[in-house]
């Protein structure tokens, strides 16, 4: 992992929906994500988190500012970027097997059939779904379907993995399992990840760095290093003084900026 390379460079990014007199969703956002880093963005509901991810992934063209991925300006969806959405049931193809879902985005990347199969089997093993490769998404639990989405994103070996509330639709126990899975696979694949969540605890548990957003139009109110080390555990890490201190700090920042008490989930 390189400590000094910038993978994502967001500079003065702003977006207004609906023309000159429309709604300003994000305002003058500037931050970087280093290569190999897992950065979390936490902010109140409706503050503009999804708008930010849409602009970074090239799905919308921001009104102001610029996004650069490994130095190249993002215009349109970059081929070496993958996104995992909250709603796994709408992002997987129900008529394709788990393995075919994972292989699907590789079809347009010039890989042979054997290479696609090898890639899919490797990432399915990593998310613990080798035995489910021939099943269909609708035969799996919600948590398993989201594992398929993560596997599909990783199979593309993206330079940057964007995740938009990826664990918000599963139960609490599955959420913990998926968080630990993400920590394992990002280590295995040396991934650079930008994950958006409204869950303060989740952001601290997962991240090397937490960016706190204000209410809409979103701006960055804090950029906090998370000094919890590489090896994290759902019980002891969450009990540590560093975790508890950071959780209070983020909650306070959100409360001050939104005027409403932040939901601190435990
Ligand atoms: N296509 C659109 N057209 C007009 N306004 C939009 C559009 N998409 C989002 N908005 C508005 O922009 C603001 C930010 O929305 P966005 O979905 O980015 O926030 P969010 O932080 O992701 O929300 P949530 O936490 O509820 O998912 C909101 O006020 C929303 O109503």
Automatic annotation (TrEMBL):
Protein keywords: ATP-binding, Nucleotide-binding, Transport
The keyword rRNA-binding is annotated on this UniProt entry: no
Source species: Saccharopolyspora rosea
Lineage of the organism: Bacteria, Bacillati, Actinomycetota, Actinomycetes, Pseudonocardiales
Keyword Transport: yes
Pfam families per the UniProt record, alphabetical: ABC_tran
Protein name: ABC transporter ATP-binding protein
An example molecular function term from Gene Ontology annotations: ATP binding
Gene3D superfamilies noted in UniProt: P-loop containing nucleotide triphosphate hydrolases
ABC transporter domain residues: 8-240
Domain of life: Bacteria
InterPro entries in the cross-refs: AAA+_ATPase, ABC_transporter-like_ATP-bd, ABC_transporter-like_CS, ABC_transporter_ATP-bind, P-loop_NTPase
SUPFAM superfamilies, per database record: P-loop containing nucleoside triphosphate hydrolases
